[in-house]
Amino acid sequence: MDGSKCNTCGYELQSTRTDEDGDAVIDESTSLLKNYGTTIALYLFIAFLVIILILLVGSIEIIFPETLAYEESPTPDRLDPNQIFLIMPVAISLGYLGSTAFAAYYLLMVAAIVFSVFYLFYKGWDDMVEYLRDVFRGNFKKIEKNRSFMSSPVLRLVTIFTALLFFSQMYLIIIEIFAGLPEMPGFDQRWKEVYSVMRASVWEELITRVLYIGAPMALLGLYKGSGAKKIGRYLFGGFGFERRLVVILVVVSSIIFGVAHIGGGLFRIPHAGVAGIVFGYLYVKDGIHSAIILHFFWNFRGVPDMLLNIPNYQLFHILLTFIWMGVGAYFSYRYLKSFGKWFQGRPFEDEEESEDVELEEKAEPKTAGVTTGYVCPNCSYDKAIYTEKSKLRCKRCGRETDPKSDHLQDNAVKVSRDQEWPPT
Fold this sequence. Notes:
Elements: H1 28-58, H2 60-69, E1 83-87, E2 91-96, H3 99-137, H4 140-146, H5 148-151, H6 153-178, H7 190-223, H8 228-236, H9 244-259, H10 268-285, H11 288-300, H12 303-308, H13 313-343, E3 384-386, E4 392-394, E5 400-401, H14 406-415
């Protein structure tokens, strides 16, 4: 296929493996195992998320009266429930909230988690349903071609959770074998324990991801004269990896996040640092809501047993963990390989075409269809691919846009007045 070009987008194509009918060759058994495993992990994740979300809302009855009655009682060995702090990387206290402010602060964090969950499914529902439909219909070639298990924010969150869980458990097993895991200090009251893991899900994301990634990008945007919409996107996340600086900021914020967990022992620094990279990636890729949900899900897994004293819950949780880890073993490999490319400034895996269907493109400036006049309305990137729905999907952030939309039409006029748009 050397020298030939795609009839849809104009890119030059290189060799690809095809069968007798000209379709790309995929390993059916591997694809079936991978996608059915991903589907099971997805269903279990959603079911468990619903359970802990119900518990989060139900626990208001327990925690809210405590926050109203709580009085300032500073302790030197840990952060108090009503304490406001920054991570630099050690915790720097900004003061203590009074009872009414503390109660309002608590309710705002609960609302932030609930809103984040609903917003995630609002944004990712269609792609998730399309993926599940293709899995049950056995359309594995379509899935591999479009990498649709990576295009949905919901699926991306679930797969990266399984990878993080696999890494976490393997790391902790190694630490236990060679050094032993120290016991983590507990709280003197149950409501403080539940409140603490809930607070971390929201507040730590704000003071590490927004403060150390979003705020610098917003300041850079202000300096360069970016509009209010783009500045807001920097602060709330989902702006994509448009600069190498973003990668640096994610790494720096993750190091700060890791060092901040030194109170649990030195072994916690790399453990939390890797989690920080994952949270940072989700913040940049999909938004602060996605990072909050994963952090909440991660922290809240032990809460059902804490609140309900469920018989044999640990056995149930171990079974769930093994299922997620089985899927995570595969995605750990995929994400690790992709993060390596990402740190080199290359597109992340879900911003590229499938490795099983290798259509390696050599973009020809001014001639390749989707690079002529294309500017992503979400992250301003200038390269895209066509989907089967005749939409243009940004190769950086995954945003799909109608080629005939006003935004793309306007940019087509600005960039390439003498060529037809949309390209054919």
